[in-house]
Amino acid sequence: MNEKIDGNIERRSPRGLRQFFEAISLMANSPWGNGPKGGGDGDGSGDGKKPGPRNPWVTPDPIDINRGRKPRGPSALDELLRKGRGGFGGGGSGGGSGGQFDLGDSAKFWKWAVLGVALLWVIFSSFHIVPPEKEGVVTRLGSYSRTVGPGVKLTWPAPIERIRLEDVRAIRTMAIGSPNATDENFVLTRDQSIVDLAYEVRWSVRDPEFFFFQLADPEGTIREVAESAMRATVANFDLVQAIGPGRVEIEAQVQQRMQELLNQYRAGVMIQGIAIRQVDPPSQVDEAFKEVTAARQERESAINLARAYEQQVLERARGDTAAFDKIYEQYRLAPGVTRQRLYYETMENVLSNVDKTIVEARGVTPYLPLNEVQKRVSATPPAAATKGGE
User: Fold this and answer.
1) Is 212 contained in some domain?
2) Number of other residues whose CB lies within 10 A of the CB of residue 138
3) Which of 11, 63, 96, 355 matches a 20 to 30 Å C-alpha distance to 80?
């Protein structure tokens, strides 16, 4: 009877009425609706039992009123699972063995992948290149194992063994204090004066094992040791010595003190040198101190000039003494000749700077104004002398 009714509707009803019944039929097959009475359950099984709610995950098929329901295909969830299995190696579209997951191929792939990663890890964590200027400290499970030199070195893969490189040839510089007035480093001298010190510490790593594992903060320890050694050394010098002539000695003593303390700490550090960059009084008394320093410099300059003159006089006296000793030796050999020679040399030195007239022949007037005549001739202009000659 249903088929007859459907046929009549198809033959006699207009097109809009046919679409209306098709929409009603689709609503009857919705996920929350029931199938047609007497036509089977909601999933199209046709067993004649009471219809129940249709599976919401099954995509409804289009209905052909002339031929009835078509067999349902796989649900959307089944299609999603099938595509996922195909991505993992199951492959294929549709049923059969092509849509199943191939566990053997997947296990083989993961096995080779894990082996490749493990091989790369062993290679990159076991072979190490140590540069020529560095040394490597190898630790095994966190504890010190050995120290290796430059070259290609082999260790157990991490995390069993690790290597840490350290440059043992680089000379590092640590600045303590600053030339700026805002950062002052006051040190007390032996004469109870205060100076502002700025200096540098040059050091290098001698033993990487001790440098890494003996001290918690090696650089902080070096700074504290430098400050302690500098204060202990400057306390043995006066202000004038600390500012000027005593700098070199202070640097040498500070270096020695620092090395002794660091050796006691087993720091693995070598102190290369100390360089004092600034020794100034506090800024509050800087102007007065500059005046005192200028006066001291003038005093030192005067003292140096006096010492230089003293050396000149002493050298001249020593020369005269040596000349007299030589003359005495000649006098002992020929007293008359030496005495006459001394007389002549003395008279020559005395009369060389005075006007004199020497007359040796007898019968000559004892006074002749030769010197006055010579002076007049020298004072006469050349032009006048030429005119008189004409």
Assistant:
1) yes
2) 17
3) 63
- Please list, in sequence order, all residues whose beta carbon lies within 8 angstroms of the beta carbon of residue 255, skipping any fewer than 6 positions away: 271, 273, 274
| Residue-number span of the structural domain to which 53 is assigned | 2-70
- Gap between the Cα atoms of 8 and 77, Å rounded: 39
Q: Do residues 146 and 176 share a domain?
A: no
Inside any domain, residue 21: yes
What count of other Cβ atoms lies within 10 Å of the Cβ of residue 102?
A: 15
For residues 192 and 220, state if they share a domain.
yes
The residue among 36, 299, 270 whose CA lies nearest residue 171 is 270
Q: Are residues 137 and 188 in the same domain?
A: no
The answer on 234 and 215 residing in a single domain is yes
Residue 324, classified by CB atoms within 10 Å of its CB into exposed (0-12), middle (13-18) or buried (19+), is: exposed
What pLDDT digit, counting tens, does each position of 256-291 carry?
999 999 999 999 999 999 999 888 877 777 788 788
What is the number of structural domains in the chain? 3
Q: Which long-range contacts (CB under 8 A, 24 or more apart) does 250-256 make?
A: 250/276, 251/199, 251/275, 251/276, 253/229, 254/226, 254/229, 254/230
Q: Which helix (H) or strand (E) holds 345?
A: helix 335-351
Residues 157 and 176 in one domain: no
Residues 117 and 60 occupy one common structural domain: no
Q: For 292-335, what is each residue's pLDDT tens digit?
A: 878 888 999 999 999 999 999 999 999 999 988 888 888 888 88
**3-state class (DSSP) for residue 187:** strand
Task: Look up the pTM and report it.
Answer: 0.48
Query: Could you tell me which of 27, 31, 28, 24 has the C-alpha nearest to residue 9?
Result: 24
